[in-house]
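Repro:
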Amino acid sequence: MKTKQLDFNSLAQTQKAFKDFKKRTEHGHEIRTGQRKLSRPLDLSKALHLILRSEIAKGGWSFLKPKNKEKINDLINYNAEKCNIKVYRYANVGNHIHLLIKAQSKRGFQKFLRTITALIPRVVTGAKKGKPLGKKFWDGLAYSKIVTFGRHFKNTSNYVFRNALEAFGVIPPRKEARGHIKIDFISLFDG
């Protein structure tokens, strides 16, 4: 059996793909649609902003409906503790959920993501293992972005907290807000 000799062009393409992988800090939703799959970037020394979005989570299936809200909160807290995930910020916005987390291990993060993305639709829709929903619940892959500690972490934390306040009607949504409302939420509540 003959082996194919490597040429420098394919080696250069491989190295370029590897460099692109090293630079990536975000994954999911509509990023890389129609392109080949790559693994989700994860840096265990940094935080991660995770967004789970579902456009069919409205009305009776809204994440903010009292019975759903409490079950989703419990589900996220239980699985975060079970998978050694530290949750810095959490915002349930009705049709999407923001999480600012830090994972201790890749395996723990994968288990956490797989578990909550499977159990939240079951809790909300009442679907069971033998009785599926029949359509996709999530709009796409869970969006994740690596967040460095410092200014980036503070800005992301403020963004997640702002989403929570908008969901509860404490402040107007950004589309309706007149002018810029710039508040340092971390300083207000964390001391």
